[in-house]
Amino acid sequence: MFADLGHFSVRDLQISFSTITLPSLLIVYCGQAAYLTKHPEHVGDTFYKSIPDPLYWPTFVVAVAASIIASQAMISGAFSIISQSLTLGCFPRVKVVHTSTEYEGQVYIPEINYMLMIACVAVTIGFRTTENIGHAYGIAIVTVMVITTCMVTLIMLVIWKTNILWIALFCVFFGTIETIYLSSVLYKFFEGGYLPLVFSLILMTIMGIWHYVHQKKYEFEINNKVSKEYIKQLGEDPRINRAPGIGLLYSELVQGIPPIFSHFISSIPSIHSVLVFVSIKKLPISKVTPEERFLFRHVEPREYRMFRCVVRYIIKDFMGTPVEFEQQLVEKLKEFIRHEYFIAEGEAVAVENPPQSSNILINQEKDKGSSRRVVFVEETLNQLNQSCRSSASIQSFNEAKSNNSLSGIVSAAPPILVAEEEIQFVQKVKDEGIIYLLGEAEVIAKSDSSYTKRMIVDYGYNFLRRNFRQGEKVMMIPQTRLLRVGMTFEI
Fold first, then answer.
1. Can you give the pTM of this predicted structure?
2. What are the residue boundaries of the K+ potassium transporter integral membrane domain, all occurrences included (predicted)?
């Protein structure tokens, strides 16, 4: 319910609850109470018995429509909760379809929809009567009220920092009323009230197992990151070749190189001409600008052409097709290379011997912001190209490579020309093809682990991993350009 309310603004909720919901509920409940004072024998079906005969069928239609709307709110709320759990790493991978580009949180999850359908059919067959289902509904609603009071009390204490007297008054007043209501419906536990608790237990078990193993796996990757010395030793290994194209190696790590990389090298002694370690992160914020979506860094040594890329999305963002994702990533990589050389080094080279109009451009750049800087750099690049085209050249990575080993770029050319060559090289290898590198990690418990841990990791987690979506399906990786290497993690 609350996940569904999150689709609307605070003002909308305040107006609708204050002017429509609350007055309507008060009028209905007062009317039913007045009716029961005269007809106490109708307590089992007060709602329909209290309706005047001319308004019975219109009210019946409205009641059915309201139940449909309430079921849709429950379904969309379940989708939102699962989607947010995925962002926090607390639920197995499922397909999330964003149905709206304007409103945040409007999602559809096919797997969860089918599970809800099966659960509804099973509950209907098992309970048979609406009375037993009503018992389950009553316990669920009152429990939600108690949990809400506890959470609001915590928010008042930690976030709002309200006076402790007001907090105590709020907690005692509402907590007492809701606890009395809860005690009055607990006697229906064995008559159907256990249903929401069983569903909650199943869901919490799935989330707990997945989050526990996911966290342990992440800690394993952090503790077993590939060292910088290992990367440098690759340049001295004559068995390592540079394959054409761009390799995208997916990893959860934002810093450091995952251990699956060394496993790739040991299994396939080859590295792509450009290698990018991609980490996709979902952020709990309202907006990520296109300029800040792809964050690049060099992996030293720079001449090996290895990069780290953190791709940042918000919950409602859609990655797009693989072609769109690849195009965006390559373009941002070019901008990163251009920024690294043009801004950090290109201006310094140009300022040492500025052209006649450079002072004007520099002043304009100071006055009008960073957009002028690009114009200045491009004009400087053209002048340097004319002066250095005949006297300087840049040796590409593959030309500098000897004996099939990794080596550095040896060039005495100006930095701006180096950047231009690097950008052209990236475009060239992009045209040769992009390959996705994905580790097929199997997680098992250590031999000395407890029986409970082995049950959770070896059976519970691996069952969920095999029966939910795999990583390549979630990221829509083309099977024809996917390279997977298996690895076993012991936690």
1. 0.69
2. 1-229
